[in-house]
Amino acid sequence: MTEKKSEKKTKLTYGEVWETLSKVDCSDHIDKKNGFNYLSWAWAMGIMMEHYPQHKIINRKNDNMYPCFYDPIGRGMVNVRVVIDDLDRDEDYPVLDYRNKAVDNPDPFQINTALKRGYVKTLAQFGLGHYIYAGEDLPELDRASMIKKIESQDEKWLKIVCDHYTTNTVSSLSDEELGIVYKRIKEKE
Q1: Cα 38 to Cα 132: distance, rounded to the nearest angstrom
Q2: Is 114 helix (H, G, I), strand (E, B) or coil?
Q3: Spacing of C-alpha 27 from chain mean position
Q4: By percentage, how much of the chain surpasses pLDDT 70?
Q5: Pairing mode, strands 30-33 and 87-94
Q6: What angle do CA 47, 51, 52 make, to 5 degrees?
Q7: Are 118 and 41 in contact (CB under 8 A)?
Q8: Which residues are within 8 A (CB) of 41 and not within 5 positions of it... i.e. 6 or more apart?
Q9: How confident is the model over 38-44, as a mean pLDDT?
Q10: Neighbouring C-beta atoms of residue 180, cutoff 10 Å
Q11: Minimal CA–CA distance to 126: which of 48, 180, 182, 54?
């Protein structure tokens, strides 16, 4: 008689998901629009399907079963929840125009765009491309201090940074790019 081995499936943890997704290099997939960096939702979904094909996206709906909530003057906000097994994260995301300004009475296309941006930002909470949002939460440092810290890195690493941002010097980086590079240095330390 052959004994069947019972394989116990261990529960997935937030740490395991972070460990997996935070290692994905998104740098070749960062798009820029009007000075803002973002990750394509389609590419992000592709990565999720490679690592966690069972993940679910839940767009919260209002009382009218519409995926947008409105403030008293008509500006929209969406809520996107991502579930991986028993793990979940959610993000409130405003409906924005092409200048990243809140939209009064958004149309369905603008709402759909906000849902996709909210999805990607929720994935960042699990680790995917989290460093893209570095400029949003870095402590205020003066530009000169950041440049000095970045320039103190080894020459090979510095050349990679400058080539990636198609600039000749660190001082040519935008504030947002400086923030991303600075955060990566802090993570290396």
Answers
A1: 7
A2: helix
A3: 12
A4: 88
A5: unpaired
A6: 105
A7: no
A8: 116, 117, 119, 120
A9: 92
A10: 22
A11: 48
